[in-house]
């Protein structure tokens, strides 16, 4: 019932804002002073469309050449998105984003776990990527490696969508891709009877990073023998300059 009421409220707000925009545009043709009023309504309309403005949680003010956003939003992602949507209305204005991320009772440990759940469930997170998240008083530090440059921002976005995250320090490094060395290492490991087929897991147990001819193994395996065997496969059957075995045992 509560969900239905919120849905109806949002639709009513969208309708009212649509009427206001139409009215303002009509009046603006005869009254140039209506432009800032129209701008405010247009920004509000954008925020409602993106489900950011609910129950008057965001206040929009126009002062000089500034669009000022204040109030509260659930996540850091929502804060950044509100700024982008406001800017898209009129690029001649500067957006001052004073929105605050709502506090939560979630612990740092729980935040880190949810971030990793988001990242690990991302369809682009696979064998050739490795990311870790550490949270301290809502400030998240992301570390690890990605083989495609744009994944660095993608995984940061996954973190920003978690309630309780105040800011994100993105220290993820970009490799030049797995190359032949990384692909051969993956085939050796995941074609071995000990690990066969595991590369298709949502979060593969062994992640393979290639950095300047060094193969870095990250992830979690079931035993010390699995960790040692994976490293030996790469160490003795590839041209890797060195193997850094960071595999952990459950």
Strand count: 10
Fraction of residues in helices?
40-55%
CATH class of the largest domain: Alpha Beta
pLDDT < 50 stretches:
24-34
Computed over alpha carbons, the radius of gyration is: 24 Å
The main sheet comes to: 4 strands, mixed
Summed up, the helix count is 7
CATH architecture of the largest domain: 2-Layer Sandwich
CA distance, first residue to last residue: 44 Å
What is the molecular shape? elongated
CATH fold-level assignment of the largest domain? GMP Synthetase, Chain A, domain 3
Beta fraction: 25-35%
Helix/strand order:
HHEEHEHEEHEHEEHEE
Number of domains: 3
- Helix-strand makeup class: alpha/beta
Characterization of this structure:
- The protein folds into three domains: 2-101, GMP Synthetase, Chain A, domain 3 (2-Layer Sandwich), CATH 3.30.300; 108-174, Histidine-containing Protein, Chain: A; 179-249, Histidine-containing Protein, Chain: A.
- It is 43% helix and 26% strand.
- It is built from seven helices and ten strands.
- Strands 7, 8, 9 and 10 form a four-stranded mixed β-sheet that branches. Strands 1-2-3 form a three-stranded mixed β-sheet. A three-stranded mixed β-sheet has the order 4-5-6.
- Helix 1 packs antiparallel against helix 2, helix 4 (108-120) crosses helix 5 and helix 6 crosses helix 7.
- The two termini are 44 Å apart.
- Mean pLDDT is 87; it is low at 24-34.
């Amino acid at each position: 019932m509560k969900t239905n009421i919120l849905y109806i409220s949002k639709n009513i707000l969208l309708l009212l804002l649509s009427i206001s925009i139409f009215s303002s545009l009509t009046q603006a043709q005869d009254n140039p002073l209506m432009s800032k009023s129209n701008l405010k309504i247009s920004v509000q309309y954008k925020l409602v469309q993106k489900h950011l403005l609910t129950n008057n949680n965001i206040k929009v003010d126009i002062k000089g050449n500034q669009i000022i956003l204040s109030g509260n939003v659930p996540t850091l992602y929502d804060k950044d998105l509100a700024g982008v949507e406001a800017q898209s209305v009129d690029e001649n204005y500067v957006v001052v984003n004073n929105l605050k991320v709502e506090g939560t009772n979630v612990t740092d440990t729980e935040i880190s776990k949810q971030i990793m759940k988001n990242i690990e469930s991302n369809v682009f997170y696979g064998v050739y990527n490795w990311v870790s998240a550490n949270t301290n008083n809502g400030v998240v530090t992301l570390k690890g490696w990605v083989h495609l440059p744009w994944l660095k921002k993608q995984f940061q976005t996954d973190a920003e969508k978690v309630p309780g995250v105040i800011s994100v320090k993105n220290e993820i490094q970009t490799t030049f891709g797995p190359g032949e060395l990384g692909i051969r290492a993956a085939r050796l490991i995941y074609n071995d009877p000990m690990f066969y087929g595991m590369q298709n897991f949502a979060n593969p147990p062994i992640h393979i990073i290639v950095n300047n001819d060094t193969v870095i193994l990250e992830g979690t395996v079931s035993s010390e023998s699995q960790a040692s065997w994976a490293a030996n496969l790469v160490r003795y059957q590839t041209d890797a300059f060195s193997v850094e075995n960071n595999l952990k045992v459950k």
